[in-house]
Here is the input.
Amino acid sequence: MTWCLFGKPFDGGKRMDHGSQQQQQQQQQQHPAMMRLYEVQREVQSLGPQVCTFSGLKNEREYRRLERELTRLLLEVDQVDTEGRADLQGARKRAAQEVEGLLRYLEENATHPSRLAIEELSREAQRLVEQGVVEPQRAGGTAEISDELVDAVQELILKLTQVKTGGRVPLRKARYRALTRLCAVQDVIEGRTRQQTLPLPLSEDTHAAVQKINQIMVQVSGARSQLVALLMGLSGRDSCAHLSRVLTELLVELDALDVSGNAAVRNYRKQVVEEINGLLKHLDLEGEGDDTRRYDLAQNDSIRQIEAVRGRVCQLRGEVLRHCGVGDLFRPKPELQSLLTHLDQVDTARNPCIREARRRAVLEVQAVITFLDLREALICRQPCQNEPQQHRAVWMVLGSLSDLQAQVLCFEGKRADKNYILLEELLTKQLLALDAVDPQGDEMTKVARKQAVKFAQNILSYLDMKTDEWEY
Here is the structure.
């Protein structure tokens, strides 16, 4: 956020030539009041980026510091003596408005409902992890990671991805920080779950180095719980840097062991090294999120690839619908299949937002493919004379669903729109019509009705996805 002390050049109510205007501006710039306002401007320009990227809450130290500095600047602006001059009064007013704007922006983001929702989800995650991982470890036991804990963490991650930020940088940053830490915790506890299913460590009689490796494994198990506590803000004394040094020292000890000539012990040591490296990769999160490319996913390469695919799908979808409108069938299925392959190769880097973006793009491609498949099936259909009435009824519903899907594919409104409500009602009626079909023991009709029901439900889900206002 930047501001300028000068609007239109002050002319005292009289027309001045270019030279007079320059002289007037020089006098304004040299005035002590204007010089002081320029100093305030420089301080505001320094604080502006800090305010615009602050992603914390009102009770944090950084918030209080920024609020204190901006309040001080506002008081200093208010104390500038304008000597009754209109030009100085205008400059002072603009300076005050800029400082007040920063103060308002700082408070709005720290108290925004989405920011509070992120905080509440983070605290819920803290409670889960403390009860399921940290407390058993502190009590001297070993945390047994349950499927319920894994599922609960996954559910919280999905809820975080659904928090709306409205494009605000501080909210994006807060959501990204919460997600990266919770995804790291998910990775650690899932690794712990996998380890619980591994065979017991090798017997110490196998090799002289096994005893040392087993001791290191015990330390690694403790470090895992310590890492989870650090990621969730549940460890006040330790730091990521300290834990990183401890784990690095364990790697050095493992590297110094002589395990030559015994493949089993060598593989055992390799597993332990991989465990440690898996923990170390999560210890660089203290500065995570400072780079806007991290949390502003519009700049992310994977998102750009996904968006490029979505753009092409939009073009193909338009061509398909245009040809259907004139009774023709445009068949770009090979290209659509290649787009699915491309999406499958997009690197999500375990980022749930990118995973969700890719999933939605896949659904968009699949929606066009299923539309083409059904259209083609309807065109090629040649019913026999003795076709059961109930089977014909299913095909009639499928014909109606195909027409409705064409409308859904080109729908670009919101859930409050009349067209959305109408489409939802019409699709529900088709489901009721399918429910009324009695197969009368005919297996082919049973299969066809089941497929038609699934098809109708997929169209409803796709319509719902198009209107849920999801964002990266």
Observations:
- The CA atoms of residues 439 and 446 lie 6 Å apart.
- The two ends are 24 Å apart (CA to CA).
- The first helix runs from residue 18 to 30.
